[in-house]
Amino acid sequence: MNMSRFSQRGGVTTWATIAVVLLVVAILAVHFLSRMQPAEVRSFQELVNRVEKLNTQISEREQQISGLVSRYNESHPGNEIDTTGMSSMGLTEEQAQLLANRVAQEKDLSYRGLLQEVIDVSGEMNKLTQELAEVKARLRPPVVVQKGDTHLGISLKFLTEEIGMNEEDALAMIEKEALVPELLAGFEVWNYYGEGVFGTFVTQGQARITPNELQRATKRKIDAERQTLIQERNQKQTEVDELESRKTELQQQIRSLEEERTAMLQQVTAMASTNDSLSQELNSLKYHIGTFKDLERSGAIRKPAFGKWNTGDIEAVDHTGSLDLRKDARIVINASSLGLEKVERILVFPRYFHEDDDYRVELSSDRKSATVVFEKTSKFNLSRLVIAVG
């Protein structure tokens, strides 16, 4: 019996201990959350949100009045209501009295009701405007955004100039806030600082759209530009695929030409065994040297569309140079003879001859001259070359 009572007392004690622990945890959690966002900051944010909501409601009432008056004026030509001075401040006393007189005189019940609706909506607007003024009076005046202002710049100026914080600490505090990436002239920036906590919020103010609408419009623009870039990328990929296909065709043509050339060289070599002059020709090449610009102008080479110079019409220039490859395998080029100060680059055309494999280029230390050395001389027999210098 005593053990039973002891067990019951032990269970009660355990539950009491758990309850106390949970209570302490709850208190600590509330304290932690309150440290994260003090009541003053929450109150400040609520007031700013109320300002934004009141601005929206006033704008809606203004549009409502404008629509109602326009409908009335369209049906009463020559007896329209003067809208001069009607704004977000609502109707003036004189305008309100004028509308009251119109209501009394209007015989058409539907238009009388329309005019009464204008008066009622204007009254609502007056109340909203008065409440807006009261809410704003409880807040530090906002910064009206000018063209070129940024949320970061306005916040930094507030903390350093009005609060007296050094720039480094101010930037560290601003870093914790979700700043609006883009501001429009007329937006209002509301700043708060208290208990070591900084708060900043942006409302529509006098701008034509809200910050959220601006953000959505910016996102739509970015999405549209991204889609355009994707389409352009796909188009470029199609062009690349077509060029690759064309490249394959040209490579096949080159191989066929090489085979024909090899067969022709074999025939000519057989004939040259009985003719020394023909033998010399077989072991010689013809060439023309010019600048890239001059050769492009003549059509011998073509300016590259995607990186590499292409062979044009080799026969568009005279091949006045001749080299017997049995005696010499070098061509020396002087920059001055081409009107150049230095030799920067040399390419041999047709491009199926490969640099550092079929031939190599040696530049002098001062780049005043260069030498084209033919490594595989037999490959250049009977060739007609264009040597481009730049």
Note the topology.
Blueprint: H1 2-36, H2 39-75, H3 93-105, H4 109-137, E1 143-144, H5 151-162, H6 167-174, E2 188-194, E3 197-203, H7 211-272, H8 276-282, E4 284-291, H9 292-298, E5 301-302, E6 310-311, E7 321-324, E8 330-334, E9 346-349, E10 359-363, E11 369-374, E12 384-389
Parallel strand pairs: 4-12
Antiparallel strand pairs: 1-2, 2-3, 4-7, 5-6, 8-11, 9-12, 10-11
Helix pairs in contact: 2-4, 3-4, 5-6, 7-8
Please describe what this structure looks like.
By secondary structure, this protein is an alpha+beta fold. It has four domains: 127 residues; 69 residues, no CATH class; 66 residues; 107 residues, no CATH class. It is built from nine helices and twelve strands. A four-stranded mixed beta sheet has the order 7-4-12-9. Strands 1-2-3 form a three-stranded antiparallel beta sheet, sandwiched between helices. The protein has a three-stranded antiparallel beta sheet with strand order 8-11-10, with no helix packed on it. The N terminus is likely disordered.
Structure characteristics:
alpha+beta; 4 domains; four-stranded mixed beta sheet; 12 strands; 9 helices
- Please tell me what the overall shape is: elongated
Report the count of strand segments: 12
**What would you report as the Rg, rounded to the nearest angstrom?**
44 Å
Query: How many DSSP helices?
Result: 9
User: Strand content of the residues, in percent?
Assistant: 5-15%
Order of strands side by side in the largest beta sheet?
7-4-12-9
| Helix residue percentage | 40-55%
| Model regions low in confidence, pLDDT < 50 over at least 5 residues | 1-37
